[in-house]
């Protein structure tokens, strides 16, 4: 009933649509683990290439943390999750009840923390 009340207002509906678009844009940490890892790798490679190109052209480096020789992908993922994802998706979950999405998020946090605890800077642990 409270959701129906919120949705009656055109302003609230617009806000909710904007939130959905933003959440969709940054939702990688809420995907199943294999998709999350794949897209974390793609995004990291895009940022590495940008940093490489900025250095090659003698431009200021916008994201120095994305130096391919020193970057820890697990740390960058955890940082992104802490700064952008947790509060936004906790709020969205409270509004729309998204247990599967939140389960994926928690699994991904555990995965990245596990790699970070082993001081690994890569997407996947080495084969045993």
Automatic annotation (TrEMBL):
<dbReference type="GO" id="GO:0007165">
    <property type="term" value="P:signal transduction"/>
</dbReference>
<protein>
    <submittedName>
        <fullName>PDE8A phosphodiesterase</fullName>
    </submittedName>
</protein>
<dbReference type="GO" id="GO:0004114">
    <property type="term" value="F:3',5'-cyclic-nucleotide phosphodiesterase activity"/>
</dbReference>
<dbReference type="InterPro" id="IPR002073">
    <property type="entry name" value="PDEase_catalytic_dom"/>
</dbReference>
<dbReference type="GO" id="GO:0046872">
    <property type="term" value="F:metal ion binding"/>
</dbReference>
<dbReference type="Pfam" id="PF00233">
    <property type="entry name" value="PDEase_I"/>
</dbReference>
<dbReference type="InterPro" id="IPR036971">
    <property type="entry name" value="PDEase_catalytic_dom_sf"/>
</dbReference>
<keyword id="KW-0378">Hydrolase</keyword>
<feature type="domain" description="PDEase">
    <location>
        <begin position="1"/>
        <end position="119"/>
    </location>
</feature>
<keyword id="KW-0479">Metal-binding</keyword>
């Amino acid at each position: 009933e409270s959701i129906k009340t919120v949705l009656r207002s055109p302003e609230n509906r617009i806000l909710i649509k904007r939130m959905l678009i933003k959440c969709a844009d940054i939702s990688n940490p809420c995907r199943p683990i294999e998709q999350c890892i794949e897209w974390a790798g793609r995004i990291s490679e895009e940022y590495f290439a940008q940093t490489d190109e900025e250095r090659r052209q003698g431009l200021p480096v916008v994201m120095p943390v994305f130096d391919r020789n020193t970057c820890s992908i697990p740390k960058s993922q955890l940082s992104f999750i802490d700064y952008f994802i947790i509060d936004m998706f906790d709020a969205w979950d409270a509004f729309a009840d998204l247990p599967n999405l939140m389960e994926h998020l928690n699994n991904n946090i555990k995965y990245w923390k596990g790699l970070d605890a082993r001081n690994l800077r890569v997407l996947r642990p080495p084969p045993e």
